[in-house]
Design a protein that fits this description.
The complex is a heterodimer of chains A (327) and B (322). By secondary structure, chain A is an alpha+beta fold. Among the domains of chain A are: 2-70, no CATH class; 74-205, Band 7 domain (Tetrahydropterin Synthase, Chain A). Chain A has helices at 2-20, 104-110, 114-134, 138-142, 154-159, 173-189, 207-277, 281-299; strands at residues 21-24, 28-34, 37-43, 55-58, 64-70, 74-77, 81-84, 90-101, 193-205, 305-309. The radius of gyration of chain A is 57 Å and the shape is rod-shaped. The N and C termini of chain A lie far apart (194 Å). Chain B is an alpha+beta fold and 322 residues long. Among the domains of chain B are: 86-207, Band 7 domain (Tetrahydropterin Synthase, Chain A), CATH 3.30.479; 231-294. Chain B contains 9 helices and 10 strands. In chain B, strands 6, 7, 8 and 9 form a 4-stranded antiparallel beta sheet that branches. In chain B, a hairpin with a 5-residue loop joins strand 7 (112-114) and strand 8 (120-131). In chain B, helix 5 (144-160) packs across helix 7 (173-191) and helix 8 packs across helix 9 (283-298). Chain B is rod-shaped. The chains are: A alpha+beta (327), B alpha+beta (322). At the A-B interface, strand 6, strand 8, helix 4, strand 9 and helix 7 of A face strand 7, helix 5, helix 6, helix 8 and helix 9 of B.
Chain lengths: 327, 322
């Protein structure tokens, strides 16, 4: 009987201890409610790891309840939504945000659970995103660094100056992220939520728009291709022209030189002949005589019919023997 | 019909335990001891470290090996694979990965990107990372895997959004890898989520399928251009060197002619001068001799010879001359 009562007391003690002790993990923040009403300050809600209150804690047994709320940074990943930009382009936008529960009591009272928190964030961030996107041109969402100069492929840049150019921007993506964050932040604090950042994750053209983009890209490229082909043909024509020019100049040059050389040689030969044949009267006389004989030798043949008279030097002996005086 | 009594279906004799109230204490205590024994140690594999918490409070990081801890959930040890190289894939999936976040749930959405010149490109890439601080990894961010995925995607989208399509496809690949890694590292430091990004690598990057052909066309046109120029150069090279050779040939021929002409002239002149010396000594008889010698040579070759008297003036018109 005695042992049973000891056991019973021990059991009661265990139950009381178990009901008044509780642990707080590093990743939880806690607040205590008494009959559903929050009491005291939340425990372990400081983000500074040095002020961590994790560990074993005590509370009043039975009447106080422990409410555990996530302490770590949480994720909000929005749905992909289609929306128009200021320049009337429909794009699908997917952004995400990180948030944490900064005031567990308010959070618990107003939202109860994470699902309702996420759905509020859907509404708030979603509408702020729409506002910001609608107030800016598409390029402001796409680009971020307004000073960036793109590296250009020289060959392509030469072919088309409009290609490989980044359109200028005023603000850029990060500024838009900040605008959304700044607009959404004050609206969520009343729920005990701190919004840490909002970022664009995916931005793409709406399926209906994308075909037009593809067509533009294709025509841009086609234009470069055409340009290359035309350049090739032009360059080839230039080379063929040069070929023609070089050929004619080489040939005519050769002709000119040939004639010059021959002319000089002729002149020189003529000079040589003249100086020899003109050296004296008898030389000229003799040259004429010899050349005439040479001409006979060369020009007269078996097709030649020759008529001599007996008066000629050769045949005068036909008529009389003595030689007449004088030629 | 009434079912048969149950005891009839249970033919074995009931085990006869020697039951005493002592067991009421001993049995739970024994169970407690066994549970305590099994919950008082843990092993950490070589690639991991363990984060030890006592009553939920961070206690220490335990290196690989066998360790003891306080039992009954007072101490808990969470094993974190810090030395394992982890990988995330974007825009494509490899099968058989152990990391649940490695593969993407919607690769075709991740892949499609808008470039800074408002063109479209399809980009596939990977991130290699590892857990640098197991404590921060567990306590800072609740979904480190999906957060890291989202951050990497945002960073890549931003970097691609600041590049032209040509940079993305060809000339800027390395720069994109470096730039996005730097940006991601910065974000991770701010977030302090215990993860360190080590490498971002672009995999397949290509234009969207409908415009792929146009991009190929540019390359082809570039080749065509080179071909056309090469062919023209070929024609040039076929003709011009040959023409140059022919020109040289003609000039050399002319030069040869010139030499010949002068030599001949000089030869003729020399011969003439020799003759002239002898002629000057006896001009009349030399003339006579040369004349007769020539006639000697010429006359036999002649086809028909007619010799007429100088007085027969009327004869010539009567001849039937050819």
């Amino acid at each position: 009987m005695k042992t049973i009562s000891i056991l019973l007391l021990a059991f009661i003690a265990i139950v009381i201890v178990a009901s008044s002790a509780y642990t707080v993990k590093e990743n939880e923040q806690i607040f205590i409610t008494e009959f559903g009403k929050p009491v005291g300050e939340p425990i372990n809600s400081s983000t500074d790891p040095l002020k961590s209150e994790a560990g074993l804690h005590w509370k009043k047994p039975f009447i106080q309840q422990v409410n555990r709320i996530e302490k770590r940074i949480l994720e909000w990943d929005g749905p992909t939504t289609e929306m128009p930009t200021r320049d009337k382009l429909y794009i699908s936008v997917d952004n995400f945000a990180r948030w944490r529960i900064s005031n567990p009591k308010t959070y618990f009272e107003k939202l109860r659970d994470e699902r309702s928190a996420l759905s509020r964030l859907d509404d708030i961030i979603g509408s702020e995103t729409r506002n910001v996107i609608a107030a800016h041109d598409l390029i402001e969402v796409i680009r971020s660094d307004k000073n960036r100069k793109p590296v250009r492929d020289e060959v392509l840049a030469e072919a088309s100056p409009n290609i490989s150019v980044l359109p200028p921007i005023q603000l850029g993506r990060n500024a838009l992220d900040q605008q959304i964050l700044k607009a959404a932040q004050p609206k969520v604090t009343s729920w005990g939520i701190e919004l840490l950042d909002v970022r664009f994750k995916r931005i793409n053209y709406k399926p209906g728009v994308i075909d037009k983009i593809y067509a533009r890209m294709a025509s841009e490229r086609q234009q470069i291709a055409d340009r290359f082909r035309s350049e090739g043909a032009g360059e080839a024509a230039k080379i063929l022209g040069r070929k023609e020019r070089d050929l004619l100049s080489i040939e005519s040059e050769a002709y000119r030189k040939e004639q010059e050389i021959k002319g000089k040689a002729d002149a020189q030969a003529t000079g040589i002949y003249a100086s020899a044949y003109n050296s004296s009267e008898s030389a000229a006389d003799f040259y004429q005589f010899v050349k005439t004989l040479e001409t006979y030798q060369k020009t007269l043949g078996k097709d030649t019919t020759t008529i001599f008279t007996s008066n000629s030097d050769l045949f005068r002996l036909f008529k009389r023997i003595e030689t007449p005086k004088g030629p | 019909m009434k079912p048969p009594p149950i005891h009839n279906t249970f033919p074995f004799p009931r085990p006869n335990l020697n039951f005493s109230p002592k067991w009421l204490i001993i049995a739970p205590l024994g169970l407690l001891a066994v549970v305590g024994l099994f919950s008082s140690y843990y092993t950490v594999s070589p690639e991991s470290e363990a984060v030890v918490q006592r009553f939920g409070k961070f206690q220490q990081i335990a290196p690989p090996g066998l360790h003891f801890k306080l039992p009954y959930g007072i101490d808990t040890a969470t094993i974190v694979p810090v030395r394992r190289q982890l990988k995330l894939e974007f825009g494509f999936n490899t099968l058989g990965s152990t990391n649940e976040f490695q593969i993407s749930t919607s690769p075709e959405l991740e892949r499609d990107m808008v470039t800074g010149d408002l063109n479209a490109a399809q980009v596939e890439w990977i991130l290699q990372y590892s857990i640098s601080s197991p404590r921060d990894y567990l306590f800072q961010v609740r979904d480190p895997g999906s957060t890291l995925r989202a951050l990497t995607e945002a960073v890549m989208c931003e970097v691609i959004g600041d590049r032209t399509v040509d940079e993305v496809l060809t000339i800027g690949r390395t720069e994109i890898e470096n730039e996005s890694l730097i940006k991601l590292k910065k974000l991770l430091i701010i977030l302090n989520m215990g993860v360190s990004a080590e490498l971002i690598q672009l995999k397949n990057v290509h234009p969207p399928a409908p415009v792929q052909r146009s991009f190929d066309e540019v390359n082809k046109a570039q080749q065509d251009r080179e071909t056309m120029i090469n062919e023209a150069n070929g024609q040039y090279n076929q003709v011009i060197p040959r023409a140059k050779g022919l020109a040289d040939q003609r000039i050399s021929g002319a030069e040869g002619f010139a030499v010949q002409r002068i030599n001949e002239a000089e030869g003729n002149v020399a011969r003439f001068k020799e003759l002239l010396v002898q002629y000057d000594k006896a001009p009349a008889i030399t003339k006579q001799r040369l004349y007769l010698e020539t006639m000697n040579e010429v006359l036999p070759k002649l086809g028909s010879k007619i010799i007429i008297d100088e007085d027969a003036k009327q004869f010539l018109p009567l001849m039937n001359l050819k």
